[in-house]
Specification:
The structure holds 2 protein chains of 2 kinds.
Chain A (H helix, E strand, L loop, with lengths): L1 H24 L19 H13 L22 H8 L5 H10 L22 H13 L38 H7 L27 H9 L20 H4 L2 H12 L4
Helix pairs in contact in A: 2-5, 3-4, 4-5, 6-9, 7-9
Chain B lengths: L2 H32 L15 H37 L2 H35 L1 H34 L7 H33 L16 H5 L4 H30 L3 H39 L1 H8 L4 H25 L10 H18 L9 H7 L13 H24 L2 E2 L5 H25 L5 H29 L4 E2 L10 H27 L4 E3 L3 E2 L10 H30 L6 H9 L5
Antiparallel strand pairs in B: 1-2, 3-4
Helix pairs in contact in B: 2-3, 2-5, 2-7, 2-17, 3-4, 3-17, 4-5, 5-7, 7-8, 7-16, 8-9, 10-11, 10-13, 10-16, 11-13, 13-14, 13-15, 14-15, 16-17
Classes of the chains: A mainly alpha, B mainly alpha.
Chain lengths: 260, 597
C-alpha cells in the first residue's frame, strides 16, 4: 500500500514540479505599477522623453502590447516623431500625438482597426504629455514643455520649442551626434550605449560611399543592408523632409567617418 | 502492518496537518491584532506570504472546493438519472458514493469561504467595504441560499435509501436537481462580484460613490454571463476529473476483483464526463475572450498579447497533456474490450494528429519581444514558426484535436458492439464521411485564413467550430440509432486495466486543477494594478502583477493544499465504508497474536 501511496505522490508532485519548472523557465514579464509622475513646469525635454520611454516600454502604458508587433498597430519606434506631421493636415505633431492618446478614434491610421484605448482613463496628464514627448523624439523634435501640463486645461496649445539645429548652419557647424539622438536613430541602430539590432550599427557604416549613405537616409527602401532583409521597410522614408541639406550632409559625413 | 496501525498513523498525520494550519492562523491573527486598530487601514499585512498571498491561497482553494461541490452534484444527478431511466442499480450506488464525499467537501468549501471573507475584511478593509456597499443585498441572498443548499444536500444524501423506489425516487432525483439549481444561483451571485472587478459598467468611474452603483447593473456586467457559462462547463470537467482520481486511487488500493472492477468502471465514467465537457469548454472560453475584447480592447490585448502572452503557451501545453492523457486512458482501456483490437492500428495515426496539434497550438506568435530578440529572430516573428503561431493554424490544430478525441470515444463505444440494423454499413460510412468532411472544412479554412485579412480570418473560426459540432452531433445521433439492439462481441472486462492507466487519471486531475489555477490567474491578473479595472487602483505594496514563474509557484502551492485536503476527504469517505465490526475469524486471529483489534 505504501508503494502505491508513494507512486501516487510521485506522480502528483512530479506533474506539479514539471508545470512549475516550465513556467519558471520561460521569459518572466511582470506587470509593474506605473509610477506617479511628478514633473515641474521647467522640466527638460530629456526628462520628459525619459519618463515617456519608461511608460512606453514598461507595462504602465501597455503600448508594446500592440505597437511593435507590426500587425495590431503601427510600428512607431523611430518613426512617430516624423510621421505625425503628415497624419492630419493642419494639425501639429504634438497636437496629433496628444489627440491619438486621449481621443484615439478621431483619426485611425489606414489599414488598422480602432482598438487604441483612451489613455486618459489610466494615465495622468503629465504622463500623457511625457509619452507625447517620447514619441516626438522618435524621428522628430521634442516640442513638449512643462507648460503643456502645468494648469494645462485652459490655455491654447503651446508653441513648439526651438528646433534642434539652426536651419542656416553650415554642415561643419552642425553636431551630427546630437542629430543622431534627436532623430531617434538609436531606437534601431546600435550607437554608444544603445544596443540597436533593428538596423545595422552606425559604426559599421564607416567607409561607405557618401552617395550610398545619402540614398539610404532619403530613400531607405532603395537598398537593404545584408542580414536585415527581414526588417526591410522598418526605416521611415521621411528623413529627407525632416533634414535640411546641411544636416543631411553633416550626417552622411559623420556616418562615413565611423560615427565617432 | 495492521489496519488499526495504519488508521492510527493516518489519524496523527491528519492531526499534524490541522495543527500546522491552526498555528499559522494563530500567528496570522496575532500579527493582525498587533496592528493599530484605531485607524482604518487601506491594507493589512499577513506574515510570511503577505496580504496578496493570503488572499490568493484562500480564494483559490475556496474556488477549487466550490468547483468540486458544484461539479459533483451535476455528475450525481446525471448518473442517478441513468440509474432511474436505464434501470442499472450500479449507477445509483455510484451517485450515492459521490454524494457522500460531497458532505465533507461542502464543509471544506464553507471553511475556506469563511477564511476568504475574514482575509478580505482584515487585509483589504477599504476595498471590502466598497464591495459590500454595492453588493450587500446579494451577499445576504448568497448566505440564505447557501443554507437552503446545505439542507437540500443533507436531504438528498440522507434520504437516498428511504426514497429509493417508485415515485419517491423521482422526488429524490428532484432534490438533486434542486441542489444543482441552488448551487448554480450561488455561483452566479459570486460571479457577479468578481466579474464586476474585471468589467465594471461603463457608467462607473473612479469618482462614482459605491452607493450610487446600481446592483443589477453591477452584477449583469460584460463578462458575467460568459464566466457563468464557462464555469458551469469547467465545474463539470473538474468534478469528472476528481471523481476519476478518486476511482483511480481506490482501483490501485483495491483488494478484490469486484472492487477493482467497480472503481475501474467509475474511473471510466469520471474520465468520460471530464473529457466530454472539455471538448466544448474551448468554445465557452472563446466566447469569454471575445466579450473581454468587446469590453476593453486593451484588456484583451494585455491578456493575449501583452505581458500574459506566454501564459497561453503554458495553457496550450497543459491542454495538450489533457488531450494526450485522456486519449491514452481510452486507448489502454480498449485492451479490456473484446473486439477493440480491430481499432488498434488507428491509434498511432490519432497520436500523430494529437502531438502535431499540441506542437502547433503551443507555438508562440505575438509575444512581447525585446529589441535583441527581434534582432535575433530576424524580424518581429520567427521566419518559420511564426506561420504556425497564427490563429488560423491554432484553430485548425485544436479543432482537429477535438475531432480526434471524439473519434477515440466513438471507437471505444463501438468496440464490443455489432450493429444489427440493416443500414449499419451505410450509417458507418456516413459517420466517417461526416468526420472527414469536418476535418476538410477545418483544414480548408485554416489554410485559406492565411490569404485573407484578419477580420475575415476571425470569422472563419466560426465555420470551423460549426463544422466540428455538426459532425459530432450527426455522428452521435447515427450511433445511438445504429446501436439499438446491437449484439455484443463480449462484456467489457472491468478491472482488467494495467495500473499505469490509473496514473493517467491522476495526471488529468492534477492538470485540470493546475489549469484552473492558471486561468484564475489570467482572469484576475488582466486587471493588473486595479482592484476594479480602471475604477479603483490597487495602491498596496503588492499591486504589481507577478510574472508567470512566481504565479506558477503559487498555483502549485494552492493545488497541493487542495489535493492534500481532498486526500483527507477521500480517506474520511473510506472510513465511513468500513464495517464497525470485523469478521469474527479476524478477531480471533488478532487476539491470538496479541495484536489490536
Amino acid at each position: 500500500m505504501w508503494r502505491t501511496n508513494l507512486a501516487v505522490a510521485f506522480v502528483v508532485l512530479g506533474t506539479l514540479g514539471v508545470y512549475t519548472a516550465v513556467a519558471n523557465m520561460i521569459p518572466q514579464v511582470q506587470s509593474d505599477v506605473p509610477e506617479e509622475l511628478v514633473l515641474s513646469a521647467d522640466v527638460s525635454p530629456e526628462e520628459l522623453v525619459a519618463a515617456g520611454e519608461n511608460l512606453y516600454a514598461g507595462s504602465g502604458g501597455g503600448c508594446t502590447a500592440c505597437h511593435g508587433l507590426g500587425t495590431r498597430a503601427p510600428d512607431i519606434l523611430g518613426t512617430a516623431g516624423s510621421t505625425c506631421e503628415t497624419r492630419e493636415p493642419g494639425k501639429s505633431c504634438k497636437d496629433y500625438l496628444y489627440e491619438s492618446l486621449v481621443d484615439p478614434g478621431a483619426y485611425v491610421v489606414e489599414g488598422f482597426q480602432p482598438i487604441m484605448p483612451d489613455m486618459s482613463r489610466t494615465l495622468s496628464d503629465a504622463q500623457i504629455w511625457s509619452l507625447v514627448a517620447f514619441l516626438e523624439s522618435q524621428g522628430g523634435e521634442v516640442t513638449v514643455t512643462g507648460a503643456d501640463f502645468a494648469g494645462s486645461d485652459d490655455g491654447p496649445p503651446p508653441t513648439p520649442a526651438d528646433p534642434v539645429t539652426d536651419g542656416d548652419a553650415a554642415p561643419g557647424d552642425i553636431d551630427a551626434a546630437a542629430l543622431v539622438q534627436s532623430l531617434g536613430c538609436t531606437a534601431c541602430h546600435a550607437y554608444g550605449a544603445s544596443p540597436g539590432g533593428i538596423g545595422p550599427a552606425l559604426s559599421e557604416m564607416a567607409g561607405l560611399e557618401l552617395d550610398y549613405l545619402r540614398r539610404s537616409i532619403i530613400d531607405p527602401a532603395a537598398d537593404t543592408a545584408t542580414g536585415f532583409e527581414a526588417l526591410a521597410g522598418t526605416m521611415p522614408a521621411t528623413f529627407g523632409e525632416l533634414l535640411t541639406e546641411s544636416e543631411l550632409e553633416a550626417m552622411v559625413t559623420y556616418l562615413a567617418g565611423g560615427a565617432e | 502492518m495492521s489496519e488499526s496501525l495504519r488508521h492510527r498513523r493516518a489519524f496523527w498525520g491528519v492531526g499534524l496537518v490541522l495543527v500546522a494550519f491552526g498555528l499559522l492562523a494563530l500567528v496570522g491573527a496575532g500579527e493582525l491584532l498587533a496592528q493599530d486598530a484605531s485607524q482604518i487601514r487601506r491594507y493589512g499585512d499577513f506574515p510570511v506570504i503577505g496580504a496578496r498571498g493570503a488572499i490568493w491561497i484562500t480564494a483559490q482553494v475556496h474556488l477549487m472546493f466550490a468547483a468540486f461541490v458544484l461539479g459533483v452534484p451535476m455528475f450525481a444527478i446525471v448518473v442517478e438519472a441513468i440509474a432511474i431511466f436505464g434501470g442499472d442499480k450500479r449507477y445509483d450506488k455510484l451517485a450515492k458514493e459521490f454524494t457522500r464525499l460531497l458532505l465533507i467537501a461542502y464543509s471544506a468549501t464553507a471553511i475556506w469561504g469563511a477564511m476568504l471573507t475574514f482575509a478580505l475584511s482584515s487585509l483589504y478593509p477599504v476595498f471590502w467595504s466598497y464591495l459590500t456597499t454595492i453588493f450587500g443585498p446579494s451577499m445576504w441572498l448568497y448566505a440564505a441560499l447557501f443554507i437552503v443548499e446545505s439542507f437540500t444536500l443533507y436531504l438528498y444524501y440522507y434520504g437516498w435509501d428511504r426514497w429509493s423506489e417508485g415515485k419517491a425516487k423521482y422526488g429524490h432525483w428532484g432534490l438533486g436537481i434542486l441542489l444543482n439549481v441552488w448551487g448554480t444561483i450561488v455561483m452566479f451571485i459570486a460571479n457577479g462580484w468578481l466579474t464586476y472587478m474585471m468589467s465594471p459598467p461603463a457608467e462607473v468611474a473612479a469618482d462614482t460613490a459605491p452607493d450610487q452603483v446600481q446592483l443589477w447593473s453591477a452584477i449583469f456586467n460584460a463578462t458575467w454571463m460568459p464566466i457563468n457559462i464557462h464555469r458551469i462547463l469547467a465545474n463539470v470537467v473538474f468534478g469528472g476529473a476528481i471523481v476519476g482520481m478518486y476511482a483511480a486511487y481506490r482501483f490501485l488500493a483495491a483488494k478484490t476483483d469486484e472492487e477493482r472492477a467497480h472503481y475501474d468502471w467509475m474511473g471510466y465514467i469520471g474520465n468520460f464526463i471530464a473529457i466530454g465537457a472539455l471538448i466544448v469548454l474551448p468554445f465557452a472560453g472563446y466566447y469569454l475572450g471575445r466579450e473581454i475584447y468587446e469590453f476593453n480592447q486593451q484588456m484583451g490585448i494585455t491578456m493575449m498579447g501583452g505581458f500574459m502572452s506566454w501564459l497561453w503557451i503554458i495553457q496550450a501545453f497543459l491542454i495538450g497533456v489533457l488531450f494526450l492523457a485522456g486519449n491514452y486512458y481510452l486507448w489502454i482501456g480498449m485492451g479490456r474490450i473484446p473486439g477493440a483490437e480491430r481499432f488498434t492500428p488507428y491509434v498511432k495515426y490519432m497520436l500523430v494528429v494529437l502531438v502535431a496539434g499540441v506542437i502547433v497550438w503551443a507555438t508562440p506568435h505575438t509575444i512581447i519581444a525585446s529589441r535583441d530578440e527581434i534582432a535575433a529572430m530576424g524580424g518581429t516573428h520567427h521566419p518559420f514558426l511564426g506561420a504556425l503561431g497564427v490563429m488560423s493554424a491554432k484553430n485548425t490544430a485544436v479543432n482537429l484535436m477535438i475531432l480526434t478525441t471524439f473519434l477515440s470515444f466513438m471507437l471505444y463505444r463501438r468496440a464490443n458492439k455489432i450493429p444489427v440494423v440493416n443500414w449499419a454499413r451505410s450509417g458507418t460510412i456516413a459517420q466517417g464521411a461526416a468526420l472527414a468532411i469536418a476535418a476538410v472544412v477545418v483544414t480548408f479554412y485554416g489554410v485559406y485564413g492565411y490569404f485573407v485579412t484578419a477580420i475575415v480570418r476571425i470569422g472563419f473560426s466560426v465555420y470551423q467550430v460549426l463544422a466540428v459540432l455538426a459532425a459530432m452531433l450527426l455522428v452521435v445521433v447515427l450511433d445511438v440509432m445504429m446501436l439499438r439492439g446491437a449484439k455484443s462481441r463480449g462484456e467489457i472486462r472491468w478491472g482488467q486495466m494495467p495500473p499505469r492507466s490509473q496514473y493517467a487519471l491522476f495526471v488529468l486531475a492534477v492538470t485540470f486543477t493546475w489549469l484552473m489555477g492558471l486561468m484564475g490567474f489570467a482572469r484576475s491578473g488582466i486587471r493588473q494594478h486595479w482592484h476594479v479595472y480602471e475604477v479603483i487602483r490597487d495602491t498596496s505594496a503588492q499591486a504589481a502583477t507577478p510574472a508567470l514563474g512566481p504565479a506558477a509557484t503559487m498555483i502549485s502551492v494552492c493545488v497541493l493544499i487542495f489535493l492534500s485536503l481532498v486526500a483527507i476527504i477521500f480517506w474520511l469517505g473510506g472510513l465511513a465504508e468500513k464495517p464497525a465490526h470485523k469478521d469474527p475469524a479476524d478477531l480471533v486471529t488478532a487476539v491470538s497474536r496479541g495484536g489490536e483489534v
